[in-house]
Design goal:
alpha/beta; Rossmann fold; 6-stranded parallel beta sheet; 48% helix; 14% strand
Length: 1191
């Protein structure tokens, strides 16, 4: 391989700390390996044994690949020499390769810990805990911490709960604690960092936050100055709106008059700005309407930005707001106290369990290598020893390290080793992992770049030649980021050192039909006419949550792909390196990149509908797989057969195969007791071989469960039922079988952690399924050997390349949920929070909160810019961007209005999607033809209408009918069974859509699918006069509901009788022992003597806690049903009519019960269908206000 001058410099330069800024496709891994092998073999200097190098990669796969490539390189060198000594030396290096430190940073830290465990007071057999075990342990300890605090009656803790607790969700407090803990772990000394940042809030001096906001607001004012000057320029043009000029100049003067001494003088000045109304249009025949409208739009934007600044920052001059900063310090002091308690407990429990998490690996390594002596870093003897041992430290993907990892690596390199760091800050896209691109940037700015300065020990080398993409793609990328990326947006100036230059000159020859220009395809979906127009800086009116819009875009992409593969669109051929020649485009050459994973499956489905093989690489919850749900139900009935829902689920499944009529016959045999009891009664009077065989099998498994580990039990279930073999014959059988193997592996993992028993394993699975982290994922289908269109997230595509890249959903708005949270954390500024005044039920935006919010927002925008860079640089031959707009002409017009050769920073930051960024750039591009493209065009833009892909025109999967195929064969004779055979071969399942629905669902799940929001009204005071604070809200609700379930309120109507009944229920262990502390006896008395319950008492027939299963038809799908299960709290009959009651024990009032109407209506529908009687009255009983609400 011929290396460029810059690559050779990176390979050959010795005895320097080298930072290689390697642009996309510049061959960074190749030069790292070449440099390493040359050093090992002594090319240009002394030989160094390969185990004297420390090579750190970002992923395990990258480490494995690097080892393989190094081994291949050494073998290649060995095959090209006849020198026996040389051969012996290379063989020695190949032998050392196995123990060479080529690994992730965490694997290296683990190696250190295993070596020096005694100095850390750890056991030698500590292992890395799985993500599942670690997360479950964290949740368990957080529960303990919160419960303990409730029992201590700590006023500071109560105030914290008042300020940040959500109704009925103590989980929110836990999430904040976990967020603070996790963030602190990315710092070098977590406890020290926490203390410093809390102290910053407690000080009266808020200068660090004021300075940060001062920079933000002055940048905004500079941008506004440019904006109003552009409006003035338009007014001064011939035929321009000269009648606006005086007002524009007044606006400009008002801007210049702002006192920029400090943050508060600016805010006071902004509060005094007054905007005059623009005069009406003058009768001037030569007035250019476009100039007038453009000038008016610029002024409107100017005015709205000033008003936004005044509204956002104006509150900061309020003395009340300023006083809140110190109060947030007190709140965070309490948070930090709880975090420290959590960390202490967590550390102890991890040691007891013999596990380490990934944060432990970093911080134990820091403990071994670094001492903090009153703020001065000192290196330990271990660090000095390692620095002498490792001659060079190689760090791949250096832009993705965090502060803790950087200090670990520095502890070695600063003690005698040479650092060779390779990365590209433009591809730093892992902010959610708390990486810090500033580490790379600081070195990039301070290391010497000039050849003349290479006498310096710290050297920076730029690699700008791209060996991946065609020239047209590189030019397009350079144009976009040359205008958009800078030190404020993207964190680096996209100048000639960062631009991509052609390194891979494709062999064109006389080849035609190769990839030419890039393409932008915009689907116009007209917005609701009632919605007002938005300008370029406001949100798009396209409804991103509307799946039909995503489907339409997916159909558009599917059509484009089909045209390319059929040879009807550009490119018709691509260059295949493996065969060294051009060939026609295939599906496997194409990737669709999306920013959000949630739309990937919609694209996959739409491509399948058009007979395009596709696979979306998205994670799906393990517990949503039908085969897993069934197998867990099977385990549940082995553990406890008196569980109706799991039992019925298994009986209805392919394992037994009972239909609904058979299940109904069993239930009618015995209406009382469990379904298992009904089965036993049924088998006494009816012979059913399937049931007999099934229950014999269950009895055998129940015996086996007491004798063997759970993993072996699962293995025997697979063997004896044949279920594992069965699922392999279904669609996606390989995937389903892999899921079942994962279940078995989870049982093995469970047992390896010293846990046993089927009951415990089922509880373990329940915890996993309820964990918000969605820890366990379904197996993924291998796609390497299949001719599939791949659908990936942009993050998953990093480091990969594809001949043809579609960047879809480009109109999707940037995710800003992280800056909407009540508590924000920043590495430099620390903590910021909205502060709630509990008495007034008001939320205050504090000075630190606003400063940190701006900081995070700007950093997020920079990361989005880098993510876009990663997406656009994956393409080798063809780049196609797709998106949706609600007004194509307006998008073009507004983009042209705001576009410039060098875009203003604030204009870039105000955009809300990749599409808007791209459009800003394209409107200044001279190599573009919005219609069809020109010979020299870098881009073509095409507009599509939603009518082109109407949902009722879905192209069906092109499976030719069997008779059409057979009729093409002329020399064939048919038997008399031809018609029957053809009918069976052509059969289509009439309820195909039903195969996509769940087998069963609960009433609550059914309701939640319909009701988008589950949020309840805010209760200003978290802790009332009652003693609810002693208990978790979820536990409290369960206990209260238990009381209503077991209390005989029809019999006991006095306070004493009710209390006596509760004591007996506690003694009989039917309700929780804490019930008397939680429940309000007076409320129960009022309930038992209410008009509704008195009517129930007089009724001839009444029921409590009545469970049901109901096959519910879905109106929107003809002929399709879903199995709904639920429990009716209470109902009674009057004159053959039903009165239905549903208890609600949460903190509800009359104003926030709407979401439960659908739920009680579902109960009523089920009761009417089952009992054949009408439900004439429906009541919600709200325990917290002791009132029946008629629905």
């Amino acid at each position: 391989m011929d290396f460029t001058k810059e690559q050779k410099l990176a390979i050959d330069l010795r005895d320097k700390n080298i930072l290689v800024s390697a642009a996309a496709g510049s061959g960074k891994t190749a030069i790292l390996i070449e440099r390493l092998v040359n050093k090992v073999l002594g090319v240009g200097g002394d030989r160094i044994d390969i185990d004297r190098f420390l090579i750190v990669t970002f992923t395990k796969d990258a480490a494995s690949e690097m080892k393989e490539r190094i081994e291949a390189k050494l073998n290649d060198r060995m095959s090209n020499t006849c020198d026996e000594l040389e051969i012996d030396y290379i063989q020695k290096q190949l032998g050392l390769l196995g123990k060479t430190s080529i690994s992730t940073i965490h694997a290296f830290c683990y190696k250190l810990i295993k070596t020096y465990f005694n100095q850390l007071n750890l056991e030698p057999n500590m292992k890395i805990g799985s993500d599942i075990d670690v997360n479950l342990l964290k949740q368990e300890i957080l529960e303990e911490v919160i419960e303990e605090e409730f029992t201590k009656k700590n006023e500071e803790f109560y105030r914290l709960c008042d300020a940040y607790e959500k109704v009925n969700e103590i989980d929110y407090i836990k999430s904040i604690l976990l967020k603070i803990y996790s963030f602190s772990q990315s710092t070098v000394f977590p406890k020290k960092w926490l203390e410093e940042k809390v102290s910053l809030l407690e000080q009266e001096n808020a200068s660090i936050f004021e300075e940060s906001l001062f920079v933000d607001i002055t940048d905004e004012l500079k941008s506004l100055e440019k904006l109003i000057l552009r409006a003035i320029g338009l007014a001064e043009k011939p035929n321009g709106p000269a009648h606006y000029l005086n007002i524009f100049e007044t606006d400009y003067q008002n801007l210049l008059n702002i006192d920029k001494t400090n943050l508060f003088t600016i805010i006071n000045s902004l509060n005094k700005i007054y905007f005059m109304k623009l005069p009406s249009k003058r009768k001037k025949s030569d007035l250019n309407e476009n100039l007038k409208e453009n000038a008016k739009s610029l002024r409107t934007d100017f005015k709205e930005r000033i008003e936004y600044l005044t509204k956002t920052y104006g509150i900061l001059v309020d003395e009340t707001i300023l006083a809140k900063t110190a109060q947030t310090g007190k709140i965070f002091r309490e948070f930090i106290r709880l975090v420290n308690i959590f960390e202490e407990k967590y550390t102890i429990r991890k040691k007891e369990a013999g596990i380490l998490d990934y944060n432990d690996l970093e911080h134990y390594a820091i403990e071994l290598l670094i001492n903090d002596n009153d703020g001065k870093i000192e290196y330990t003897e271990i660090a000095k020893e390692l620095g002498k041992y490792y001659k060079e430290v190689y760090i791949d993907e250096y832009q993705d390290v965090n502060d803790a990892q950087e200090n670990i690596l520095k502890a070695i390199s600063n003690n005698g080793s040479i650092s060779f760091m390779v990365g590209d800050v433009k591809q730093s896209i892992y902010k959610f992992r708390l990486t810090n691109p500033k580490i790379f940037l600081n070195k990039y700015e301070t290391f010497k770049k000039s050849i003349k300065e290479f006498e310096n020990n710290n050297v920076c080398i730029d690699l700008s030649k791209n060996f991946r993409s065609r020239k047209n793609i590189l030019m397009a990328v350079n144009d976009i980021f040359g205008q958009l990326m800078n030190e404020n947006v993207g964190d680096i100036v996209y100048d000639e050192t960062q631009q991509l230059y052609v390194g891979n000159e494709y062999d064109f020859g006389q080849v035609t039909d190769i990839a030419t220009h890039c393409e932008l395809h915009l689907l116009e979906i007209l917005k609701n006419k009632d919605v007002p127009d938005n300008d370029i800086n406001k949100d798009n009116n396209v409804n991103e949550s509307d799946s039909s819009n995503v489907e339409l875009e997916a159909k558009m992409v599917a059509n484009l792909i089909k045209d390319i593969v059929k040879g009807n669109a550009n490119p018709k051929i691509i260059y295949d390196k493996q065969i060294g020649a051009y060939r026609p485009v295939e599906f496997r050459d194409i990737v669709i990149l999306v920013r959000s994973k949630k739309n990937s499956t919609i694209f996959e489905e739409e491509l399948h509908k058009m007979n395009i093989n596709a696979y979306a690489e998205v994670s799906k919850s393990f517990f949503n797989a039908i085969e897993i749900e069934l197998m867990i139900n099977f385990l549940k009935i082995i553990d406890n057969i008196n569980q109706d829902i799991p039992l019925i689920s298994v009986l209805r499944s392919s394992l037994v195969g009972l239909d609904f009529n058979e299940l109904s016959d069993i239930r009618t045999q015995s209406l009382e007791g469990s379904f298992y009891e009904a089965c036993k009664s049924f088998m006494v009077n009816n012979k059913n071989d399937k049931l007999i065989e099934f229950f014999n099998m269950i009895y055998n498994f129940r015996k086996l469960a007491n004798m063997v580990p759970v993993s072996e039990l699962i293995n025997q279930i697979y063997l004896e039922t044949g279920y594992l073999r069965y699922v392999t014959m279904l669609d996606n059988g390989e995937l389903k079988a892999s899921n079942l193997r994962i279940l078995k592996q989870e049982a093995i993992n469970f047992e390896e952690n010293m846990q046993t028993g089927l009951f415990n394993f089922i509880n373990y699975l329940n915890k996993l399924s309820n964990n918000p982290e969605n820890l366990l994922q379904q197996a993924k289908l291998g796609t390497d050997q299949n001719n599939l269109v791949k659908i990936k997230s942009i993050h998953k595509s990093k480091g990969l390349e594809f001949p043809i890249v579609f960047l879809s959903n480009s109109h999707t708005k940037f995710n800003t949920t992280d800056i909407q949270e009540d508590i924000l954390i920043h590495n430099e500024l620390g903590f910021g929070a909205k502060l709630r005044d509990v008495a007034l039920s008001l939320d205050y935006t504090t000075l630190p909160y606003l400063a940190i919010k701006n900081k995070i927002k700007n950093e997020n925008i920079s990361e989005e810019m880098r993510i876009l860079y990663v997406a656009l640089t994956r393409a080798k031959e063809k780049l196609i961007i797709t998106g949706i707009t609600d007004n194509y002409d307006k998008l073009i017009k507004d983009s042209m209005l705001y576009s410039e050769e060098k875009m203003d920073i604030l204009t870039i930051r105000k955009q809300t999607s990749y599409l808007k960024w791209i459009m800003l750039s394209l409107m200044t591009n001279k190599y573009i033809n919005p219609a069809t493209g020109t010979k020299d065009a870098l881009w073509s833009i095409k507009k599509w209408s939603s009518k082109d892909f109407a949902l009722n025109q879905t192209e069906q999967i092109a499976h030719p009918m069997i008779d059409n195929i057979l009729n093409q064969i002329t020399k064939i004779s048919y038997s008399e069974n031809k018609i029957n055979i053809f009918e069976k071969l052509n059969y289509k399942y009439v309820h195909q859509l039903a195969t996509t629905l769940p087998q069963k669902t609960t009433v609550t799940q059914f309701q939640n699918n319909i009701q988008n929001s589950n949020r309840e009204a805010y209760i200003p005071k978290f802790i009332k006069e009652t003693n609810f604070h002693k208990h978790k809200s979820l536990l409290r609700g369960n206990i209260i509901h238990e009381v209503f379930e077991h209390l005989d309120y029809l019999k006991y109507t006095s306070v004493e009788a009710i209390k006596t009944n509760l004591i007996k229920l506690i003694k009989d262990k039917k309700i929780d022992s804490q019930a008397l502390e939680i429940i309000d006896i007076n409320t129960l008395y009022s309930f038992a003597n209410s008009d509704i319950i008195c009517r129930m008492r007089k009724s001839s027939l009444s029921f409590k806690e009545q469970s049901f299963i109901y096959e519910m038809p879905l109106d929107e799908f003809i002929g399709e049903t879903v199995l709904v299960q639920g429990i009716v709290d209470a109902y009674f009959e009057e004159e053959e009519k039903i009165i239905l009651i549903d208890y609600k024990t949460g903190l509800l009032n009359k104003n926030n019960i709407n979401k439960y109407e659908k739920q009680i209506n579902l109960y009523a529908t089920a009761l009417e269908a089952i009992t054949k009687k009408f439900v004439i009255e429906k009541y919600l009983y709200l325990y917290t206000i002791d009132e029946f609400i008629k629905i």
